[in-house]
Amino acid sequence: MLHRLESLESCNYNGMGVAVLERQAASLKWQQQNYVVQHNNLVELCASSMPQLQGLTGSNLGSGQMVELKRPEVFLGSDDFQEFVNFPVAGAEFGDSEKLDMVPPEAAADYCISRTSSCQMTALNTSVMKEEREDMILEKMESTTGSGRKSFNKRKPEAVADHKGKNKRIKGEGEPEVKTKCSTEISRNSSKENSKASEVQKLDYIHVRARRGQATDSHSLAERARREKISKKMKCLQDLVPSCNKITGKAGMLDEIINYVQSLQRQVEFLSMKIAALNSSVQFNVENLTMKEFPAYVANFPAAAKLPAMASLPYFQLNPLQKESVNCMLNESMLPPQTATEGIASASVSISEQSLSSSSMTQLQPFSTWNMDPQDIVPGIISNFKREYNFKCHYSPSYKTYSNDSDSYHS
Amino acid sequence: MNKYNPPRMNPSSLRSRFATRFLRTLSKINAQKPTSSSSPTEIFRRYRRIKAAADKSMAYSVRSRRTWSRAMLWKLRTRPCGRRSVKTSTIIKSREARKTRHEKQNKNTTTTTTTTTGEDGVVFGVEADELRELVPGGEAMDLYNLLDETAHYIKCLTTQVQVMKKIADFYSP
């Protein structure tokens, strides 16, 4: 490798008559190459633009750093780099431009070897050390360059701020991730691209990228993640509640959910009342029912378990009224009528309206004479039954209107 | 000779667990009844017992996996004498609260909402309170868990309604 360096140096000395601008451009190119080596970016590109250095860079990178070919505008901002690429490669500058005339080739070679080796070393270190070295290299570049300093000055505060932002956002990530993040950070910085909000990787923390124009405060990021969780949950609820399809917006959906839960609870109440009103002589046969599916069993059910003839009048009156109310309420829910009896009952409701209304009135009286329950639960429930029945005349398929009626009732 | 085999229910599903428990309790209640079972008082008493049995068997089917089931079981256990169901009163209360919500629209309720920043506190303020009243054990939950519990509670309620409806249809004339 040394003899190759010497040959390059000889080329360089031959090129001493080259214009100062070209020399500075070449020195900047060398420094850029250092920078590139630091970030494992565009080494091939630099090597392609500087064919004399190709062997050197290849040997430097023999330790297994990854070489990625990227477009020139990705790195360093398109304009600066293009300028340097277009310049003819007169020769490689392996040291500072000021030192070149004075330093003998061997020392210069040593110096650049040491620099490259240091570059090599830092690439394998942790991310923090890398960033420190990067800062040092940047400072060196700044101190030694001439006219090309401008671009690096531009880049340095960006890079430093970039590092700070990176450090803030990256917590406890592994090295390869940092490498990709470095490259993406630089690309983002240079080309001013903003990535979408996404969870990058779930290591120890949930990494959320800020959208363009949004705050990167940790609090707001957490808020945003929480809000996304909640909206996901609302979508699941939307699938559960049948009437939420047309309604958009969280408030309306929550109202629908509340209505649905209330209607379900009321259905449970009414069904338990219905079961309570069934004739208790019916034995609840647990074994038969658990072994088979309900609908099939109901279809095969013989008439033996039918209720015997009702003797008492109140029960008679309660039963059909209750059944109709329950049926009407159950029709409200999305369950279709299960048995033929239910269908017949709902069909015959309209015919016997008047008779049943009278019966409901007579039914209310014994209830109101109760003193056992001082609360308004009893008349509340019975009036619910009655209102169910009254509501049936204005039946509409959505339980939402039903609850509106309830509202008007309780006003 | 095709015998119609009805599809077997999954014995460990929520529905079958609830159904078995509920039917057992129902048979127990029926066994305890007095001879005259047709008076309204009796019916009402039985209604309350059946309702409590339904809730209890539902909560037992879910075990203690859910906050609402734990809260419901605790509520049922610590209400020995007064079997008064407060559900209708809470329903009335929630309706009134929702009516007055339009007047209180701009007022930000910060009592039970955990977040006062962002639009969550303003949007979900009143509705979340109502939901908390409806779902047992919902008072001490933040919004995300509340929605989670509501979803499971809705699922269990629908199962309960279906089973009870089938029982009622099965034994009705």
UniProtKB/TrEMBL annotation, chain A:
UniProt biased composition (Basic and acidic residues): 155-182, 190-199
Main localization, broad class: nucleus
PROSITE patterns, alphabetized: BHLH
Keywords assigned: Nucleus, Transcription, Transcription regulation
Compartments (UniProt record): Nucleus
Region (Disordered): 142-199
Keyword Transcription regulation: yes
InterPro entries xref list: bHLH_dom, bHLH_ZIP_TF, HLH_DNA-bd_sf
A Pfam family reported for this protein in Swiss-Prot or TrEMBL: HLH
Residue intervals of the BHLH domain: 214-264
Protein name: BHLH domain-containing protein
UniProt organism field: Hibiscus sabdariffa
TrEMBL record, chain B:
Annotated region (Disordered), positions in chain: 96-118
Superkingdom of source: Eukaryota
Residue ranges annotated for the IBH1-like N-terminal domain, each copy included: 12-79
Keyword annotations from UniProtKB, A to Z: Nucleus, Transcription, Transcription regulation
Classification via InterPro entries: bHLH_AtIBH1-like, IBH1-like, IBH1_N
Pfam families named among the record's database cross-references: IBH1_N
Subcellular location: Nucleus
Protein name from the UniProt record: IBH1-like N-terminal domain-containing protein
UniProt organism field: Hibiscus sabdariffa
